[in-house]
Amino acid sequence: MLLFLFLPKLPPLVETFVDSTVLSTLVLPILYSFLYRPLNKQIKERLEIEKELRLSEARLAYKAKELEKTMDKLQQAPQMLLAAKMSGLGKIVAGVAHEINNPVGFIHSNIEYVTEYTRSLLKVVDIYQQEYPHPREEIKAIVEDSEVEFLRQDLPLVLSSMKTGTERIRDIVLALRNFSRMDEAKIKRVNIHEGIDNTLLLLQYSLKLGSETSGIEVIKEYSYLPEVECYPSLLNQVFMNIFNNAIESLEKCYSNQNTPADTNYQRSIIIRTQALSNKILQISIKDNGVGISEDIKQQIFVPFFTTKSVGLGIGLGLSVSYQIIVNQHRGNIQCISQAGKGAEFIIEIPFQQ
Hints:
Heat Shock Protein 90; 2 domains; two-stranded antiparallel ribbon; disordered N terminus
């Protein structure tokens, strides 16, 4: 580098030529090799990194969308499972109801004739006793053995109870058919009170309405309502699930360790219906059972959540009910409850879908 200091000064034109020549032949390639190439390499590397990031983001977005679809399918799985189960059960119920209805119909229709025939025969017996007040000893013996007077009083009662029994069977068969509603898989306009009543009829054994000691009182506070557009069989399933939960809660209250101190305690389920407006229907089902604690109440609509012992429940009833009300009927369902103070389920659905 010191050698340049001792060289003679060149003319301006030559100096300019030398400067430009040196700059183009020596300096620029050096600058390019030391500055531009590394910078170009860094730019390429950065572009590659950005490209990989965009591809990664696209892959993550795709996987997130697939995961969302899978979650939707998992959330719908309980409802699909119940729908398949109810479809198979509905076919069986419809077949059994049809088979039961035929013989019961024969018995019920013939009871009227048997009752009429019995009256005629007893009338004949009365006339014979009037015309022959002193029959022979053989006839007296037969009359005493047959207990004619007892038959005269008891036979009409037996026929009446048989008629009541066949009417009860026919009501249950009709309730089974209405509950399953195999012919109403689509949206239809129905009387919502009939669906509630049919469901309660199927649960009478559990309600034990005729028992004075352990019966559950059902109080109906129905308002006048127009017909509702809904999926009848699905809505009946919601009523069934909520009633079953209320009955189980009241059964716990009746056990020895949970019986309230008040000796006048009467287990009850109160059903209220009302129109909040000309568009919204509200159904309230309230019990005075053991209630639901706050931590459990926050999870009751979660699929497969249950407080029952293994084998006694799989935790799908209320979660499926939530999906039926919210997803199928564009409505809302909520639970209002405190431990020891019963529970109230409030359902709101539009009159028209």
